[in-house]
Design goal:
Length: about 180
Amino acid sequence: MGQIKVDYNVNGIEGLCVITPAVHGDKRGYFSETYNLRDMQEAGLNYNFVQDNQSSSVKGVLRGLHFQINFPQTKLVRVIRGNVYDVAVDLRRESKTYGKYFGCELSEENHKQLLIPKNFAHGFLVLSEIAEFCYKCDDFYHLNDEGGIFYADPDINIKWPKVDCEIILSDKDKKQPFLKELNS
């Protein structure tokens, strides 16, 4: 592999990967390839990304936990400004890690990326004053295919970091169901 380091199956969750690209810096700043198809394929990560998304959020914003129901997406996520606590929850019913989550900090300083396979819920909490978040998807977004789980579901028990402000949720995210309600 050329320019990336891949930590496979993080937290014992098959398919979930933390990717760290090489960063070349000097007194002028830095350069990094944020995505290289050849490096990804050499790492055994064969995805055809078809859509790039970007969001900007202020401190305390929590987006998620979201997923697409009938058109699940693999996502490659990263932060280009600020820092977030990023979370992926395994929704693959046949998986031994169903309902288990992995969380890590993504920031403009650490350059880490999280590869989230299909059939995972995804969300993040903004830890900095502002964060710009980018992600690649291997399927198109379908408005009428949105699914979600409440971010503070006690059965998942995500250990969100403390922020020195109120958590800001969309109206939709305030009403998301618990994981066990998806199964009923």
